[in-house]
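Q: Can someone sanity-check these two? First one:
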Amino acid sequence: MTSGPIDKVTMKLVALAPQGFRSAVHPVTSRFVERWSPYRYYLNRRAEVFMLWFPKCGGTWAKLQLHTALTKHYGVVGAPPLELEHLKDFEPRIPRIRPFHDDAPHWKTPEQLREHKRRYAGRKVMLLVRDPRDAIVSLHLQVTKRWKVDPNMSLDEFIWNPRGSFHTMIRYYNIWAKNRDVPSELMLLRYEDMRADPHAAVRKMIDFVGVPDVTDELIREAVEFNQIEKLREREAAGQYDTRRLQPGDPNDPDSFKARKGKVGGFREVLRPEDVEKMTQILRDEMDPWYGYPI
């Protein structure tokens, strides 16, 4: 997430802290900064389009594809690959797109989530979603191997952890479903649809943010350049300057930002009894607007 100087210093100090301290403090710091940072309030006020997602729902992949398409379309050179929000500073015709993890849900219990979405009243919102069973498996690796918060927590423990895991994600989705009429326009984009037809997904994003005359050939180039396998190769080769696109441990494939990106991969790693329980919760508790379980 794009942050102001104070935000960056705060989060960097937390990241450098000993593991035990980091595990205790990092979630609290993230929640506080997300809600109270004056700089983030300023960024929210000036945004023209919001791109929001619960972590590990394909947000980074979507940002990279959209970034490539927009920079190629307008001939922008030198813009960092993840700084989608600041493309307008390079080219005023590009809408200011604000991508972030709305409400810092991955650091909250279900009860700590905000029930309202008033900050998006009258605004344009892209909401990226993913099957919670896949997202939580990927989030476990992000939390333990990249952010290194509670690094010894097993996947079996993590999925039922009260903070920022499966139940939090279900409630986060349900809150958005109840508030889906708050934005002036809301576009729902499922990760599974992005994987099935990335060209159509990028076209959908381009049209939603309101950039005209982007050719199909340019979109094909953006999709081809940002194939997950190619992103993983560039990450392994150390071609990115930003820490957000570098592995937590170059020798551990599970610590890479770009991993498998597989739809339905949760069945390979979760216990059958957990899959059955999670699937039943999706059927019983999750708003059918999202179309899960698939």
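And here is the second, same format, sequence then tokens:
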Amino acid sequence: MRYVILYLKGMLMGAADIVPGVSGGTVALITGIYKKLLESINNISTDNIKLARTVGFKAVWKKINGPFLLPVFGGILSSILVFSRILEWLIKNEPLELWSFFFGLLVASIIYLFKLKLSFTIFNFLYLFFGALISFMVTLIDVTENQSSLWYLFLSGFVGISAMILPGLSGAYILIIMGVYNTILSNVRLAQDLVINFDKSQFFETASVLGVFIFGIILGLKVF
């Protein structure tokens, strides 16, 4: 039952990660797994992996808290695969209603974080001001939609995942600003379609896009 609950929490995180305005980190914080998630990710290192030669895979799996990470990331992946197709359809067919919903989620997240962590001190207001200023400056970046160069997709994954694991900062929103949100959503959908209708040329194109993006995510997740 414990693993089922962790899986469901992972699904909630995955759904939040692909919704602009909501942070998967916020959901992890709300569900009580945020600190343990960061500690478990931090335990994944080359030194610990090398220990498998001496102490065995089972001991290393326990050391990196694999029984915790597997259901959480399994839930995240499942949620992304399910909801990415739905979101892509809504963006094309019901954009006004969808973005209104996203805006409501963003406002609710801000209110929650104020209640949970923020105190009304002069320093916190200064941090709030500088954070808002930086965010506004990011929105002024002139980036055309559907950037497809591999180095840019890698950078998007690297930056996007840092936002996804920070409470209150939406990784999906960062991807929108960087102009790759729709590109990633459509390629996730194409990857699912290829399971049924395989096409060699489409496979290599989709694998290149998602492979580089995921590599950026993995590296960014470890670094941040």
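A (reply): Looked at the second one. The chain is about 80% helix and 0% strand. The longest helix spans residues 66-93.
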